[in-house]
């Protein structure tokens, strides 16, 4: 089959690799009809996530048709499904309490040591995302082996196009959980850093959850415009002093909740961010956390901090004092996708949530490398890339 | 000393007595020393056990105690979850004798015969290699109810003495390489198998699984 493989920083290629097979009874094989490039993939593309090996197949946002099933799969051949990027066994303690992205069994035993050393506990398995998370072949391919297929994939009705439901795999639940973790009340002012796909879905979710005001922060005019169209007020951090603006826009109290939808590769000109850029480049690996640092200072005392943005390691000059002295509450994590797929599918069906506004480019899978480069370098206008195996150039 | 601590001590000492093996007895004694000042298991102490490697790990498995015990009690089930163990054959069920075939480098194998030294239904199984084995090893697995409906706490403790002889040493290197890592992986696979019915693998094809690779290396 054809698949997008990683070969090093800024080096991804579409190559021919072995087709997947049913390996375990609960597996299914999915023939991919649509698959997207995620901001998380850019962290791999930029080489700032450890444990990626040459030849690894990337991609964790995908959907398609079931073409093969193991004896223990609950899926049927021909069924159309969206697959969560988090692999969850359904049988462990964490799955039982719906903390699916903390599944204890989906990362193979012999692969758990690396993340356990880094974080104190192993990470769960994720598709197409480093050997820290199992080293599973990903969804930017013609076919994918989906383990524990009776727990993750959600069947979708034929009248909903791929583009309406594809993002149930990751970014829609991620934006939703990002907003849910901010514990939004009706009188709240909420600030969202980053107007990428995750930030935009967090904005949309916060509005649906009834926030009085949502303020979106980025420096790309087109992305900010998308946030404004959804009903957010916007701040361009290149033009405006973000913290001062947030204080004024929240009546001098500070925003009630902040959502960091930027993650470890924040852009910015603060001195410590520039230093972090250098350190990341020379491989001493400090996460660039300038958006999060700013958010911690901007949130009101006793406020809530939600972090859907991904961080992989350590960071320098972290405003720990602000966290403690202001009495903040922090919630974060890889998304517990399986918990949200059903309710969010309903919200797509009844029109509460729209996801299609986000897609700026549709490319054949063969052009995936091109898609990565542009999603990275033309962020303003390349808001989301959907790849289609077999699509004509 | 709390009651539960005393019980644990006795359990440990019990093995040593049953074995009558001076080397393992020394290990058991060291395990006890580690218990003097705090409530942590002796195996988590910041010191070594002389020539012996001792390691222990605990996992919580969301399954009833009896089911887990029954799986472990049948040693022929264990190669599926244990690193570098090719097969375990029951030699004499009544006497609890089993023969483990363990992978050694260059396609060779080593056999270790073990005997069950203690078995408490639903709670504990302890085994050790018989006199004259190429690898001197001892293992003990215990099953305790976890709080509420969290299932069962399973603790695996393995002790071994580096063997004499080239083949024995080579096999031990594989079999007992970093015993802490091995015990952890074995227990995690046990957990995955009992909770999911599968040994988790990220292989895209059957030939890429751990089991397939293990057969290949043999
Ligand atoms: N928690 C999860 O399960 C999960 C799932 C998917 C993605 N993510 C993470 O969410 C983050 C965002 O993903 P995405 O797909 O939207 O990525 P993206 O790269 O498309 O968007 C990031 C946006 O942040 C903006 N930005 C950069 N620095 C900023 C700053 N200092 N202040 C304000 N905005 C800033 C960028 O201009 C960009 O528009 C990434 O870290 C990604 O890894 C997490
Ligand atoms: Zn993603
Ligand atoms: Zn699980």
TrEMBL record, chain A:
Alphabetical list of Gene3D superfamilies matching this protein: Medium-chain alcohol dehydrogenases, catalytic domain, NAD(P)-binding Rossmann-like Domain
Top-rank lineage group of the source organism: Bacteria
One Gene Ontology term of the molecular function aspect: oxidoreductase activity
Keywords per UniProt: Metal-binding, Oxidoreductase, Zinc
Domain Alcohol dehydrogenase-like N-terminal: 25-154
Keyword Secreted: no
Domain Alcohol dehydrogenase-like C-terminal span(s) in chain numbering: 197-278
Cofactor: Zn(2+)
Family: Belongs to the zinc-containing alcohol dehydrogenase family.
Entry protein name: Alcohol dehydrogenase
UniProt lineage: Bacteria, Pseudomonadati, Pseudomonadota, Alphaproteobacteria, Sphingomonadales
From TrEMBL, chain B:
Pfam families referenced in this protein's UniProt entry, alphabetically: Polyketide_cyc2
Highest taxon, organism lineage: Bacteria
Name of this chain's protein: Cyclase
């Amino acid at each position: 089959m054809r698949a997008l493989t990683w070969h090093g920083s800024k080096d991804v290629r579409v190559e021919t690799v072995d087709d997947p097979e049913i390996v375990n009874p609960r597996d299914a094989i999915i023939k991919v009809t649509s698959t997207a490039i995620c901001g998380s993939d850019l962290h791999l593309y930029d080489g700032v996530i450890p444990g990626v090996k040459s030849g690894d197949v990337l991609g964790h946002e995908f959907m398609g048709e079931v073409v093969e099933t193991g004896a223990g799969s609950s899926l049927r051949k021909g069924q159309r499904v969206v697959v969560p990027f988090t692999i969850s066994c359904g049988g462990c303690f964490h799955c039982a309490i719906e903390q699916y992205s903390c599944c204890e069994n989906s990362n193979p035993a012999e692969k758990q040591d690396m993340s356990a050393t880094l974080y104190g506990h192993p990470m769960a398995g994720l598709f197409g995302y480093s050997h820290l998370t199992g080293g599973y072949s990903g969804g930017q391919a013609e076919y994918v082996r989906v383990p524990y297929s009776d727990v993750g994939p959600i069947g979708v009705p034929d009248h909903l196009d791929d583009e309406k439901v594809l993002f149930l795999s990751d970014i829609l639940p991620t934006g939703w959980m990002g907003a849910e973790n901010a514990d939004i009340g009706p009188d709240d002012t909420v600030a969202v850093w980053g107007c990428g796909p995750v930030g935009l879905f967090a904005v949309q979710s916060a509005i649906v959850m009834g926030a009085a005001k949502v303020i979106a922060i980025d420096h790309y005019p087109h992305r900010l415009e998308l946030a404004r169209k959804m009903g957010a007020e916007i701040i361009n951090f290149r033009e405006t002093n973000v913290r001062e603006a947030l204080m004024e826009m929240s009546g001098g109290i500070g925003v009630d909740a902040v959502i960091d939808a930027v993650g470890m590769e924040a852009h910015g000109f603060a001195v410590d961010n520039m230093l972090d850029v250098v350190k990341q480049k020379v491989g001493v690996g400090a996460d660039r956390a300038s958006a999060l640092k700013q958010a911690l200072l901007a949130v009101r005392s006793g406020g809530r901090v939600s972090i859907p943005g991904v961080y992989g390691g350590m960071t320098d000059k972290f405003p720990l004092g602000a966290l403690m002295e202001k009495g903040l509450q922090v919630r974060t994590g890889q998304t517990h996708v399986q918990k949200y797929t059903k309710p969010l599918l309903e919200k797509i069906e009844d029109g509460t949530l729209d996801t299609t506004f986000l897609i700026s480019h549709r490319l054949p899978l063969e052009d995936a490398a091109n898609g990565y480069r542009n999603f990275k370098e033309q962020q303003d206008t390349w808001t989301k890339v959907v790849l289609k195996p077999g699509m004509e150039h | 000393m709390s009651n539960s601590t005393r019980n644990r001590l006795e359990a440990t000492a019990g093995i040593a007595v049953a074995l009558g093996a001076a080397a393992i007895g020394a290990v058991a004694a060291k395990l006890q020393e580690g218990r003097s000042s705090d409530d942590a298991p002796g195996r988590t102490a910041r010191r070594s056990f002389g020539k012996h490697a001792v390691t222990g790990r605990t996992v919580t498995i969301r399954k009833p105690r009896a089911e887990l015990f029954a799986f472990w009690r049948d040693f022929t089930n264990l190669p599926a979850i244990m690193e570098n163990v090719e097969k375990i054959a029951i030699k004499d069920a009544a006497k609890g004798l089993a023969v483990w075939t363990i992978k050694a480098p260059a396609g060779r194998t080593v056999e270790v015969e073990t005997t069950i030294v203690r078995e408490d239904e639903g709670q504990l199984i302890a085994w050790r290699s018989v006199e004259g084995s190429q690898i001197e090893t001892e293992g003990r697995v215990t099953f305790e109810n976890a709080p509420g409906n969290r299932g069962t706490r399973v603790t695996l403790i393995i002790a071994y003495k580096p063997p004499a002889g080239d083949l024995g040493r080579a096999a031990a290197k594989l079999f007992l390489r970093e015993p802490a890592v091995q015990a952890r992986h074995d227990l995690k696979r046990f957990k995955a198998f009992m909770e999911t019915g599968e040994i988790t693998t990220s292989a895209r094809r059957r030939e890429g699984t751990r089991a397939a690779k293990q057969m290949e290396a043999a």
